[in-house]
Amino acid sequence: MYPKSIQKLIELFRKFPTIGPRTASRFVFYLLKLPSSEVVQLLAAIQQLKQLVKLCAWCFDPFEVKEDEANTGLCSICRDPSRDKTLLCVVEKESDLEALEKTKSYTGLYFILGGNVGQLKKEDLQNIRVEELKARLKAQNPKEVILATNLTTEGETTALYLERVLQPLGVEIKRLGRGLPIGSELEYADEETLRQALAARR
Amino acid sequence: MYPKSIQKLIELFRKFPTIGPRTASRFVFYLLKLPSSEVVQLLAAIQQLKQLVKLCAWCFDPFEVKEDEANTGLCSICRDPSRDKTLLCVVEKESDLEALEKTKSYTGLYFILGGNVGQLKKEDLQNIRVEELKARLKAQNPKEVILATNLTTEGETTALYLERVLQPLGVEIKRLGRGLPIGSELEYADEETLRQALAARR
Amino acid sequence: MYPKSIQKLIELFRKFPTIGPRTASRFVFYLLKLPSSEVVQLLAAIQQLKQLVKLCAWCFDPFEVKEDEANTGLCSICRDPSRDKTLLCVVEKESDLEALEKTKSYTGLYFILGGNVGQLKKEDLQNIRVEELKARLKAQNPKEVILATNLTTEGETTALYLERVLQPLGVEIKRLGRGLPIGSELEYADEETLRQALAARR
Amino acid sequence: MYPKSIQKLIELFRKFPTIGPRTASRFVFYLLKLPSSEVVQLLAAIQQLKQLVKLCAWCFDPFEVKEDEANTGLCSICRDPSRDKTLLCVVEKESDLEALEKTKSYTGLYFILGGNVGQLKKEDLQNIRVEELKARLKAQNPKEVILATNLTTEGETTALYLERVLQPLGVEIKRLGRGLPIGSELEYADEETLRQALAARR
User: Fold this and answer.
1) D53 interaction partners in chain A (CB closer than 8 Å)
2) What are the structural domains of chain D?
3) Measuring CA to CA, which of A107, A168, B140, D61 is 20 to 30 A from B201?
């Protein structure tokens, strides 16, 4: 058994996403060997993260406060006047937004749900920003909302749930195109994907 | 080293698709243990395959000669009067046809290329049935051809090559829909697939 | 669904070790494309295997009949006068014998059990050549028997079972050395292997 | 692109063992969502690690200073009077010591090298505590030293190097037992491991 201070930190690192006990203990030994100056740097970077980064008031993507010179409370995408305000893309989390930005082919705005509705249990529904999304739609009034949740069971359930919630608002609701991904082979594609690919042929 | 008769058969089994030396030798020991009656059964089944199965004159899918009572030279799909003759789906190989049939959502006819054009080298072009496809199009005269090659580099090259070859024939040419497959997550999708999914939103 | 002759052969190939339905069907399409001359070659090789190869009367390893000019009924290892007859190594199957021969560091004789005792059920016990092994020991009268079964649960159970059966015969019984394999790291070794490696340090 | 404070912390997390860019960014979003109280807890745990944990003066395993009431500068294993001082087990790193302790079958003392000699380059040799090991041997004067480095190329090279360095000291040097690990199959074992397993049969 490792000493308490080590055990304590291993447990905290185990809560980090994807980290098991073995990697958590490697993190601790890494820190033990790290020169004090670099540990200080790490501690400072974590503290600064909490001090300098805020969530955007519109889309909930994190942004650096000091870059928001006019003190709008908005991230750089939401502040950008060249983005198309008639489009709103709803994603589950920050890295999904980042993935879509990397394609350089979407010019509208985003909204981060902060998760998905999971099994549609009461506590799952509180996991995502539904009221904030409704308020956002009223304020932005886009022509089209793209529900870009993952194509997992949880993501699909989330999109169906949001479709029902947003319907009364009268906005056009779309989903990302389904079909065969680049590099795929028909023989290994699942039936439903093939069915979608046949239906969406063009 | 195994005895010659074993070594010989191992080498023949190694030519089977996906089979390495270890599995090939396991096949031989499997046959050595198999009762003679079952070996006879296997040999008969291989011989019958070559005797009873022919390639369809239209689509090149293998079919059982004796089921073709009217001696049409056609497989059961091509013989089926209820299939939609205005549609022709071009695939690389038999198992791709089988995968599309399993979706139960395609009602047209097929054409099996017998491979792909690979790197577009001269010998690669002889790998696929281009002349047969052109003759088939003239005979069937479908309204729409679906180039359902794989979304791999070789499959895409094949589709581009066929598009160029078939253009003078004036038929409408389509491809399978691209996009996110069922079960996928945005974060792990490649950029091109995301781009296609955005373009094909609906 | 594939035609009957294809379906039949797919089912026979599915019985081959490690082969699932997809690979089995690829085997059939491979054979359909194969020139008739090569199919004839394959059929001949399978027939010759059953005609030319016999199991050694002593160790049950397969050998080529025609190489056994003196008609001893023995494989080349058992016929080899330079092999050490005071040692007998008992293995589960042919490929284990082959693996040990490749080390070029064992000079004794072998005995192939033909399997393992599995869960020690009655039918499992009939899976292995126990009576043949006892007869062999009486005939060869080696000084040392090495029970070289796998270190899996089934292999270990088989070794324990054989130890009990062979004890009355008064021969010295050994097992292969346990410990850390080449290339391994302590951190990823299981506890029992580490315990054995500590006990067997030298 | 993420804002600077996020990018900075992603880069620091990427230096953690086994962590790539995607996981590093997931760490940052995890911290952004974490309540401030838990971030404070994490920062405190990292600071305490550096303040409360020291490396043992004998074996270099980290230990909690406050548990060392008599202020010996030694970890709990080195302080334990019941451990066998005639045995010294030399390992590459902390987690190797932990793995051996879990077997509960080693009762001697340890020495952590802090790495391995890699390719035996000059800078690699400074990676490990050779002088400290020699000093330790003179102070402890054990009967037996177990060089329990990994069985990787680097670990083997390290053991060979240490054997040469320690030989003049006249202590008995042993290595961990090599052979087949629990659960292994002969067919898949590498030749050298099988050779060792044959040599170490018992």
Assistant:
1) 3, 5-6, 32
2) 4-51 (1.10.8.420), 84-202 (3.40.1360.10)
3) A168
